Amino acid sequence: METLAYRSAVRKFYRRMLPLLVFMLVINQMDRTNVGFVKSHLETDLGIGAAAFGLGAGLFFVGYALLEVPSNMLLERFGARVWLTRIMITWGVVVAATAFTTDATTFYILRFLLGVTEAGFFPGVLYYFTKWLPDAERGRATAIFLGGSAGAYIVTGPISGALLEMHGVGGIAGWKWMFLLEGGFSIVVGIAAAFFLVSRIRDAKWLTDEEKAQLSAAVGRDEAARRDARTAKVSRWRLLANPQLLLLCWLFFAMSMVGYSITFWLPSIVKKIQGTSDFEVGLLSAIPWICAIAAMYTLAWYTDRTGRRRPWVAIGLLLGAVGTFLATVGPPWFALVALCLGATGFKCAASAFWPVAQHTLDLKIAAAGIALVNSIGNLGGFVGPTVLGYFQQATGSTRGGLYGLAAAAVVAAAMVFLMRVRHTPARADVTEPAVR
């Protein structure tokens, strides 16, 4: 039975910390993916073709993967308030600098540097959740947070489309205005967030002593349940090579490979609809992500109460594969509808996947493990867009690439059931006295 102090502490976290983290993620995803809306402009102004664009869009994830694990380890040392805001400020600087791209080479360098500076933000927040919430609460928190990712895709289109309409203001191209203003906004929000984020439960001035004790006790019991005595004497580096962790890496790789392909190439597909302006492309590109958010929140509500998440990872991957395949068989309007199904499937799979991954990992490698899964998995964001760019450059169509991505998602869905997941009750019992 849950205590009033525990429920009050959880509600305060959801009310005070989660909205800020979601807002930061919205900006994060907008700055990461806004390049999809300037593909045609980069080709016209700088001569960056489809293959070069796909490679540049994907190089972000190479820099991201290289620095992800070290970044998450530094978050353990410096705390969320310092490290997450540092990440946001520096990625804002790089986004603003992208306005000064002159050719394919500088485009590659800046996309790589964006990955380097952003590394550690997403897994850092997921690790932050494990320090504030027990497992029974993290499914909903993760879904709300991931909703920020889908929400970013909703607002990125209209905002980026509107900024592109500033073309010629002050003698500056619209795509340059987009990068300058969106990057500058990230810097401002990152500085402001440093005054509001709280790294640890005991430092939260807005929690009473009893609320701190009850919430800390619930998190402590959850950590004890995840601590595997059999691995107590095994080094962190050996644990990082265990088969379950590698399986998690592959599953998220497949999700990222197809999910980011949809993200980066959706505006190009929508732009094929005759008579659409940049702003209209942005509005239409938001539709799949609206569908994804509604489905994600419904699924999170259900899985937090049943504790059954693993089957939904597989179902989401299969739905994503079907949507990706159907996007190849009809006109642009039908492709947009099919990608609504694809985006919904992959976002639902991710929202169910991360609580499973968090609970599967041993405590000794929680921070490094989450970062490794996210960094290696996000390399799919390099492979998918690069493959689609190659197919479009070579054949004039992305159809062959989409077929391959859909097949990879089906394979990943079949492998979901190889995960060994500890059983956890849907709600934690928090009536035990706090241990100081």
Automatic annotation (TrEMBL):
Localization, per the record, is: Cell membrane
Protein keywords: Membrane, Transmembrane, Transmembrane helix, Transport
Give the Gene3D superfamilies listed for this entry: MFS general substrate transporter like domains
Residue span, Major facilitator superfamily (MFS) profile domain: 17-424
> Among its keywords, does the record have DNA damage?
no
Annotated CDD domains: MFS_ExuT_GudP_like
Residue stretches spanning the membrane: 48-67, 79-102, 108-129, 141-163, 175-198, 245-266, 286-303, 310-327, 333-354, 366-388, 400-419
Q: How does it sit in the membrane?
A: Multi-pass membrane protein
Superkingdom to which the source organism belongs = Bacteria
Q: What PROSITE patterns does this protein's entry cite?
A: MFS (PS50850)
Q: Pfam family example for this protein?
A: MFS_1
Task: State the protein's name.
Answer: MFS transporter
What organism is recorded for this protein?
Answer: Amycolatopsis acididurans
